[in-house]
Amino acid sequence: MLSVAGPLSLAIVRHFKTGGVIVNEHILTREQTRRHVEILGRWFDFIHLNDLPERINRRNKKPFCLLTFDDGKRSNATVVAPELERLGVPAVFFLVTGSLGSETPFWFDRYDALRTKLGAVPFGLNPKVHKQLPYDLLGERVERACLQYGVDAEMSNDDIRTMTWEEARNLHRSGFSIGAHGVTHAILPREPRAAAFKNISESIAKVSAEIGESCTSFAFPNGNYTAELARHAMHCGARMVMTTEPTWVDQTFPLWRLPRVQLFGIDSRGKMELKTAVAATGRILANPDGTGRIYRAINRLAKRNSRPSRCGSVPGPEEPNAVAENRAMHAR
Q1: How distant, in Å, are the alpha carbons of 72, 102, 113 from that of 110?
Q2: To the nearest 10°, the Cα dihedral for 219, 220, 221, 225?
Q3: Which residues partner with 240 through β-bridges?
Q4: Which of these, 243, 249, 245, lies nearest to 53 by C-alpha position?
Q5: Rounded CA separation 24/235 (Å)
Q6: Domains of the chain, with CATH numbers?
Q7: At residue 113, what are phi and psi to the nearest 5 degrees?
Q8: What's the distance, Cα to Cα, between the start and end of the chain in Å?
Q9: Do the Cβ atoms of 255 and 53 come closer than 8 Å?
Q10: CB atoms inside a 10 Å sphere around CB 123
Q11: Which of 58, 126, 239, 248 is 20 to 30 A from 43, alpha carbon to alpha carbon?
Q12: Are 251 and 193 in contact (CB under 8 A)?
């Protein structure tokens, strides 16, 4: 069914829709990388990050596709990037700057290791609840559960460990774009406002220092954002800020909240084609963690949000629009 519906839907959509799609990936094998490029390349022109602002406002025979990879896993540098380079396809790699070269796994990799061993959700970490927790509390609960059950993520696995800064610089020298993804993988609207501001500014500054030129892009961990936080990232030097609102991007989206459609290595051709076709309708779909639909409320409030304070400064008390925005983000 998907094998028919997917390509038919996408064939129709691309004749009427301007803009294109920013694809959000995480880890892929070489075969999956080739397959994703082959499937997406049938319908889209692959573009470089620097070409995005201009392509959003220009109609071509083919819509565009920008590939992005979050978290900075080592396999991005050793598996995905070499295959993309061989195929001549550009991409953006968003790095969690405080984790590069670290021997400490991400909380979500530990969480997956727990679920795999236990065959069930650990107590206190229900998937409907755990992403609502502040970063420090979430990490503490996951680490405590790992100690209790004698399990942890396997750091010898390149899909779990992160790349080093030297590997990130090599990606940059090879023509790939390097963006910031936070100092930690904290879900920023769950954090205290000053801490979230600092997390954004320090990660952008770190990428700039390590690659030797300005970091021009920032992607929100888990995609969760507020307009205030997104505009703060822009004020800190990012020209483009990515969310995971699962729609196409066109001239109706400002550069401070660019939507991305999540694809996964195990997705079939039909699923990938149908997912990108449905995303072109502008309908906000549910993300895997249940977010997505709440972005509509945030977007309505975004127009009324005040400008963020200067990069590096500590913000003052929350204004009414920021409070309303955060309430929308927490709504379920």
Answers
A1: 16, 14, 5
A2: -170
A3: 217
A4: 249
A5: 24
A6: 2-99+164-330 (3.20.20.370), 104-154 (no CATH)
A7: -65, -40
A8: 32
A9: yes
A10: 10
A11: 239
A12: no
* 178 touches 100 (CB < 8 A): no
Q: Write out pLDDT tens, residues 66-122.
A: 999 999 999 999 999 999 999 999 999 999 999 998 999 999 999 999 999 998 877
Q: How far apart are CA 206 and CA 187, in angstroms?
A: 19
Single-letter residue type at 304: R
Q: Is the distance from CB of 171 to CB of 93 less than 8 angstroms?
A: yes
Which token pair is 167?
């590997």
Looking at this protein, which amino acid is placed at residue 249? V
Which token pair is 131?
Answer: 């992403």
What span, in angstroms and rounded, lies between the C-alpha atoms of 220 and 299? Answer: 16
CA angle 310, 314, 317 (to 5 degrees): 105
**DSSP one-letter string for 27-66:** ---HHHHHHHHHHHHTT-EE--GGGHHHHHT---SS-EEE
Q: Which amino acid is at 176?
A: F
The owner of tokens 């939507």 is 259
Q: What is the pLDDT of residues 241-294, one digit of tens each?
A: 999 988 889 888 899 999 999 999 999 998 898 888 888 887 655 554 445 555
Joined together, the tokens standing for residue 298 give: 């945030």
Residue 330 CA to residue 312 CA, distance in Å, equals 26
The token pair at 300 is 């309505």
**73, β-bridge pairs:** 162
Largest CA distance in the chain: 57
